[in-house]
Amino acid sequence: MNKTEHLNWAKERALEYLDLNQLENAWLSFYSDLNKHEELRNHVGLQFGRQLKYAGFLNSVEEMKDFIKGFN
Length: 72
What we know:
4 helices, mainly alpha
């Protein structure tokens, strides 16, 4: 699977959790899935997302959804 396909797959899986209002599972799924791909595992967006999450941001379904959808 190429980088774009893998990213889209990870987004879809995470968004499914958000549809179930499972914010933490969405984040863990997205983070874990991106770490499984060689070209995505060191993406600066993952580090930024982790910092946002643990600084008290990305704590609503809408914030997380916007972050995941906007991830490139």
